[in-house]
Amino acid sequence: MLNDIYSIENEQKLDSKACKNIRDIAARTQQPKPRELNFSEIGLFSFPLFLLLVLYQVLKDKDEIQVAEFFKVGNLLDTFEKYKDKFKVDVFLQKLVYYRLILDYYFIRQNADGFSYVLDDYVYDEDAAKDEGLKSAKKKLIQFQSMLFVSSTPVTYYRWLSPALEYIESSERPISPVDFLNKLKQIDNDIDEHKGVPSEDALSYQNIDRYWFWRLDYYLWENREVYFNALEDRTVAENYAFRRNRSIEHIAPQNPIGGSAMKWNSENGRFLHCFGNLAMISSGQNSLLLNKPYEEKQGHVKAFVSGSMAGSVESLKMLKIYQIEKWNVDEIQKHQKEMIDVLKKSYNFRYTT
Prior knowledge:
By secondary structure, the protein is mainly alpha-helical.
C-alpha cells in the first residue's frame, strides 16, 4: 500500500536496531509488473500549484487560510515564507512524495489533446480485466473526476482534492474504483454551494453557476441508457469528454437570424433566460450557432452526431434538447423540469457493481 511508504503519524525516532539491513531482506522471485509510460499524458496541476496543495495539506489551522490569496501561484514564495513556521520541512517533503504517488495512482491525467482523460491501469487493471462492473466503475470514476476538474479553478481544487487525499491516506486497505467514486460523490455533495439544487431563478442565465451544467452532463452520461433512446445518440454520449467550456448558449435565441418557429413576445419572454432554454458550450461553437433558429441549430447538432460535419457535441443537455423536433415554450418547460429532476435524483445515487 502507499501508506507503507512512510509513517509520520507517530513522530517517533526510528530504532536503528529495528531497521533491516539489505542482507536481511528476503529475495523475491515474483517478476515486477511491466509498466509502459506514456509521455503524451500530463498531470492535472502545475508544479507550483501542486506545492501549494501539499502545503495546504500539512497546515493545521486551515480555517484561518484565505484561499483566494493562498492558491495564487504567482505568490508561491511569499506564501511559503508566510507559513514557514507552521509546518515541518521533513513532513512536507514526505507528503510531497506521497501525494505525488497518490496522484499517479488514483487520479486522472490529461491526454495531449487536453480534452480526454485517463486513469492509470497499474492499480485497477487486473481486477477490471475480470469484472465488467469494475470496468464500468473505472470509467465512471474517470468521468466524475473529469467533471470535478473542469468545474474547478486553482482556488477551488482543494474543496474536493483535499478530502479525497485524506480519504486515501487514512484507508487501511486498497481502494476500489467503486469506493472512490462514491466517496468523491459524497465529497462533492458536501461542498456548501453543491448541497442542493438551486431554485429555478438561481439557474437562470443571469445567475447560474456553471457547475450545474457540468454536474447535469455527468449524470446524463452516467444514465445515458435512460435518457438517450437512439443508438447513435447513446454512442455520442458514451464518448463524451468534459471540457472547460464556459459559453452559455440560448437554444431559442432572442433575435434569431432567418426564419424561426419560435417567437418571443410579452407573454412568453420570461422563459428566454430560463434553465430549460440554456446549454453550455465552447465559445467557438457558440459563435457558430449564434442567433441561428432552433431548426438550423438542430441540423448542425445532428450533423455532428452523424459525423457528416466536422465538430462534436459539447453538451449532453444540448444533445438531449435536439431530440425534440419542435422547440416551444411547452417543450422548454418540460425539458427544464426533466433536467432539474435529474439533478435532484443525483443526490440519491450511489454506485454499486
